[in-house]
Amino acid sequence: MVAAAGIKISKVETSKLTGTSLENLPFGRYFTDHMLEADYVNGEWKNVEIKPYQPLLMEPSLAALHYGQAIFEGIKAYKEADGQVAIFRPYDNFRRFNISAERMEMPTVPEEIFIEGMRQLIDLDRNWVPSLPEHSLYIRPFMFSSDPVIGVKPSETYKFLIILSPTGPYYAAPMKIYVEETYTRAAPGGVGFAKNAGNYGGSMHATALAKKQGYDQVLWTDAFEHKYLQEVGTMNVFFIIGNQAITPSLEDGTILAGVTRDSAITVLKEMGLEVVEKKFSVDELIAAHKAGQLREVFGTGTAATISLIKELKYKDYVMHFDTDTWEVSKGLKKRLDAIRKGEAPDTHGWMYRI
User: Fold this and answer.
1) Which of 118, 241, 249, 262 is the most buried (most CB within 10 A)?
2) Strand-strand pairing, 70-72 and 136-145
3) Which residues fall within 8 angstroms of residue 107, CB to CB, at 6 or more apart?
């Protein structure tokens, strides 16, 4: 059948959901019955189809495998209190996806494929959206160059897909974070603000070294002095110091403009905190800790939502935190969860109902 916006739909005969529990699923391991696929050929998007989830057939010379033209987004859909399904701020991810595409010299994806295709796909697989606390449907739109050609140049063809994955909590417990001062995630003029695959591939070695020391993730610092704080793992980071919520500025183009980050800034202001976006150094962080003013530290991201940080290590200086006593980050999470679940008024128009 062909649905609205010219999207062809082919359904599975039997759902994989039969006999599958949606409780406590690990992140990114299970996928729903269907996926969306589209091809960019001769300057236009074609063959837009929702079809059964299946492997892709690729040439060994596929350009993306050799030169890294690949971007993605992370979005979540939630089962609201009345049973309806709603996506959290998909238009913001749509805009950011195309910002990434432009930086990576890739074609932009039109709204009728990205948003409408996502809506139809989730509507088809709506029974996969968990209703349990801390559970959601993770949405992964992604695009990669598909020329079967080895040559360092932008591809002429691309493939865009959306896959869906029901999931439980990303980080079940507060994290231990190592402040990275050797390796670099991003530099001004680079691609730190784009959600491209290479940013994540390049982060894995430093993260693996941190894990050998007993830490969950790294807190990245700037490329020149390893002094100014950037992101924590795959998340933006916030520091509650006195009545201020401080988060690293986006102005250098080294930090992803997180949708959850933006949501947190809005809600923190509503909670009465002053939100400060600025270049923030590890020296300032340590000074606040020594003065007893560093109240809370947490990460924000689509997958992790709000993740508490119970320990930070910089060189030989270790900061321990009693997360059980925290109020700001837990209050922030509670407010965001209530909006996502339809238990609080959506005064900002963040929820897109299917």
Assistant:
1) 118
2) antiparallel
3) 40, 45, 101, 158
